[in-house]
Amino acid sequence: MSADDDADVPSPRVPRGRGGRRRQEILDVAAAAFATRGYHGASLAEIADEVGISAPAILHHFRTKEGLLTALLHARDAEDADDGDGGPARASSRPQGLAYLDHLVETVARNVERPGITQLYAVLSAESVTDGHPAQQWFRDRYVGLRALVERALEEALERGEVPAGTDVEQSAAAIVAVMDGLQVQWLLDPDQVDMVAVTRRTIDALLAALVAPPAARP
């Protein structure tokens, strides 16, 4: 990952002043390290060396390596809230019904412009399935929340008559979230060959077309 990519990894809002700037610098370097080497592969010593401080100095700000990771995950939450994906508390500010699926495609387009964030998320989410990973619960909760947002949008679409009665909103939501995450990995591995925005749009359109197709037309 290039230096330009590193610059777009998320950073939480930190206090102003020298201590806040140092904390911000540690977070930026740690985010790039976790994105390229994973949580277990990146050491505090390496992060400290790149920042130009000692490992104990990092612990002064975050106490533990796990605390550093937690700060980065909170940054992701804050960024999602700014984008209007902050969960039920921000439900009134997000698009309703099928318009929310268009919003998801716009989110994918933003992710193309911030590969560092996308890579950090992809690496940590994959790592989190391993036993004892400190981010496991965070990602479990995040997927529950993401599916719930899409489910709610599809329920709104049902209420508006935008999709047929009987649509399985839970399975449809899980499929949409799975496609978005899977495409991130493919795109990170081969960005010149995988058009993440176009494929997301095509997949959502295909899902909606299948929902409205008469039963006899379905395989």
UniProtKB/TrEMBL annotation:
Query: Mind telling me which Gene3D superfamilies this protein's record contains?
Result: Tetracycline Repressor, domain 2
Species source reads Cellulosimicrobium cellulans (Arthrobacter luteus)
Q: Superkingdom of this entry's organism?
A: Bacteria
Positions of the DNA-binding region: 43-62
One GO MF annotation is: transcription cis-regulatory region binding
What name has this protein been given in UniProt? TetR family transcriptional regulator
- Kindly state which keywords UniProt assigns to this record, in alphabetical order: DNA-binding, Repressor, Transcription, Transcription regulation
Q: Which residues form the HTH tetR-type domain?
A: 20-80
